[in-house]
Amino acid sequence: MSEGVEERATTGALGADGPADLAAEPLRVDGLEKQFGGITAVDGATFGVERGTLTGLIGPNGAGKSTTFNLVTGVHRPDAGQVTFAGEDITGMDPHRIARKGLVRTFQIARELGGMTVMENMMLAPQRQSGEALWRSVTPGLRPRVRREESDLVEQVWDTLDFFDIEHLAEEEAGGLSGGQRKLLELARALLTDPDVLLLDEPFAGVNPTLERRLLDQIHALRERGYTFLLVEHDMDLIMEQCEHVIVMHQGRILTQGSPAEVRSNEAVVEAYLGGEV
Amino acid sequence: MSTTSGLVGRIADADLTYVLAMLAGVYALYLAAGLALGFDARGLLNSVAVVTFYVAVFAMLALALNLHWGYTGLFNIGVVGFMAVGIYTMALVSKPVLGSGGSAAQVGGLGLPIWVGMIAGMAAAALLGLVVALPALRLRADYLAIVTIAMSEIVRFTLLSRTFQSFGLFGRTVGLGGGSGLILDFQSPLAALVGTLGLEGAYAGLVGLVGTVVAQNPRAVVDQFVYGLLLLVFVAGFYWLLKRAGESPFGRVLKAIREDEQVAGALGKDTDRFKIKSFMLGCALMGLVGVLWFMPQGAITPNTYRPRLTFFVWIALIIGGAGSNTGSVLGGGVFAALLFQGPLYFKNLVDRAVDISNAPGSFGPAVAPLLGAGDPVPFLLYTVDSVRQLQLVLMGVVLIVLMHRRPEGLLGHREETAATVPLTRRVAGEDDEPESQATAADGGQR
Ligand SMILES: Nc1ncnc2c1ncn2[C@@H]1O[C@H](COP(=O)(O)OP(=O)(O)OP(=O)(O)O)[C@@H](O)[C@H]1O
Ligand SMILES: [Mg+2]
Question: Domain residue spans in chain B?
């Protein structure tokens, strides 16, 4: 039964129209810098994320990973440097415009919309909803079209909820979810925006291992169809096993990047981050 | 199939039941009080008409504020400013041209029809909302609060100022009248409406009918009554509009902004645009209520539009429970009937039972017997006699009790789901599925 659900979710709910035909390197970051008061959070970060990959971004606490996400997605304006998405300079663009272009992020600390139900949270995500125009939602002759559109979305959303194992929470207020359930909701919601590139900030923190595996399978399935993922994660084994490409940050700088094997053999990384473990 | 069952569903709607029950309760209370006060038919009709009026205006104001605060999380404490701009603009547009009639007015207007004035009033309030919102909406929520209350006082001072007392506009001498206000010397809006609809005959018949129970000047009673009913129709209109706006993808984005604006942005929603739309719509509606409330009053003066009116609307919204349109209507009604109009009725009631004309004139003589001889009567009389002044205290007490006992408002924690369709799972195997998918497919072409 779970097979069937998974099948439906993969083919129906997520990425129904496939990723946009992006360049080989949809996301590129050049010399990104950001200071907060005296702290240099990001210090000349330069890296690219290749299309159809699962790229890992690792580094110790405070290395500047989340700040990099904030700079890329327009939450903060970089002091210097450039962010390029699908060949377009998006540096300093408003977050909603960046999201609309297909570059979507999740937050490290799950930010559910607490006063709305899980279902409302999810229904918010799909892009280009015609009913978001006030006049279309209000005018008698136009509302039926909005309703049709919404009934179809409802089905999609239910499938996605099934996939994330949170369908029993659909009617609950999101504010009442557990920590792990919030992370799931956040990830599910981000996927429903149908992004081309997804930036995930520690998406599996607090998620149970079985579900984590299924989510990773789903990510790989989408990746094979051309979707691109950049993943912040502290679980070394997971990163080394799952990612094609790993970027290591330390004190705001990119320490090294390459295949998991290359990164593992880099002495600086071993020293700065991996310690004696490897 | 769906139309008939939908209609029945709507009529049997629990929400409508709440509202009707509230109205019935208010009327029962007022009629009972009226009978206890020994009102005649005229008095009874009048008291019901007056309370209907206030129930309606506060329900509409609470609905508009609910769009701002309950839905979008916009902290507007300048409600009264938008009302003032609404009615003053309407007056400016619809007052007769100076010198055209036998009116004693100091300044004239543009002499345009009343409905043009109403639309102009709404537009002006919405524009003021835009001007206020543009700089403030991008800042933190509390800045909007500061800006709106400052705006409402600036509006009042502008209305009071001699500079705008009278000026030229399109070759006419118009003005805001300064401290002495404006005389609303246009045709009675009700008469204008009845005339436009060609119902003069029917209306005269109604007046004649009422004349059989109300001997003197039945027309005034009927006017007041019909105007109150008309306002209830406007309440229904507000409710209809805001319910549709709220229960839609548009309303969903507003709620998301209220909960966490950054998340809405991260999901691709242009939050500034949504906030401005929501704010302007709410302001336009507040402007309209300003018009509807003060248009039939004969004259307006700037000092009516003090911040306390704004706070009344907030109390109404809090009573009803922010976030729910039905709650807003209930809150507006309960506030108007019990806290706004109620104390005066209570005083009259007591006045009738015990003669309070010999109540002490100040606080000292009122408490002295209580402390000295343990005689509470002078103090109680004094309290009842000062009920108008104590109204605000009463409102404060009610607010505090509500915050403790029922912080989510009358209906408890209640919000209408922000979607045009039920968000429940479709029953498996329902046969209309292929059809709806086909229609969606062509609707999906953009
Ligand atoms: N909004 C902010 N204001 C001030 N300082 C900030 C802000 N955001 C981040 N910083 C600082 O920037 C540095 C990098 O923080 P960041 O959150 O990017 O680290 P991180 O790599 O995501 O760490 P973690 O693995 O713990 O999530 C930290 O020293 C942090 O204190
Ligand atoms: Mg982080």
Answer: 37-305
Q: How many CA atoms lie within 13 A of B122 on its CB side?
A: 13
Domains delineated in chain A? 3-112+179-275 (3.40.50.300), 115-176 (no CATH)
Atom 19 of ligand 1: nearest residue by CA position: A62
- For residue range A36-73, list pLDDT tens digits in order: 998 999 999 999 999 999 999 998 899 999 999 999 99
Contact call for residues B358 and B381 (beta carbons, < 8 A): yes
Asked if A117 and B270 come within 8 Å (Cβ–Cβ), the reply is no
A105 → closest Cβ in B266, B277, B415: B266
Q: Which two tokens stand for residue B140?
A: 């933190």
Model pLDDT for residues B171-217, shown as the tens digit of each residue? 777 788 888 888 888 888 888 888 888 888 888 888 888 888 877 88
Q: How far is the C-alpha of B438 from the C-alpha of B436, rounded, in Å?
A: 5
Nearest CA to ligand 1 atom 12: A41
Cα B78 from Cα B68, distance rounded (Å) = 11
Tell me which residues have their CB closer than 6 angstroms to ligand 1: A 36, 39, 41, 59, 61-67, 108
Instruction: Give pLDDT tens digits for B280-324.
Output: 999 999 999 999 999 998 899 999 999 999 999 999 999 998 889
Question: Residue B215 to residues A202, B37, B40, B302, B331: CA-CA distances in angstroms?
Answer: 79, 19, 11, 36, 36
Distance A190 CA to ligand 2 centre (A): 18
Q: Which of A111, A119, A143 lies at the smallest CB-CB distance from B423?
A: A119
Give the residue carrying structure tokens 């997605």: A73
Partner B, chain A 114-173, Cβ-Cβ below 8 Å: 114-117, 119-120, 123-125, 127-134, 137-138, 143, 145-152, 154-155, 157-158, 170-171
CA-nearest residue for atom 24, ligand 1, is: A61
Contacts of A93 in chain B (CB under 8 A): none
**CB-based contact B244 A99, cutoff 8 Å:** no
Rounded CA separation A146/A137 (Å): 7
Record: contact B266-A150, CB cut-off 8 A: no
Reported pTM = 0.88
CA distance linking residue A45 with residue A254, whole number of Å: 6
Distance (Å, rounded) from C-alpha B249 to C-alpha B253?
6
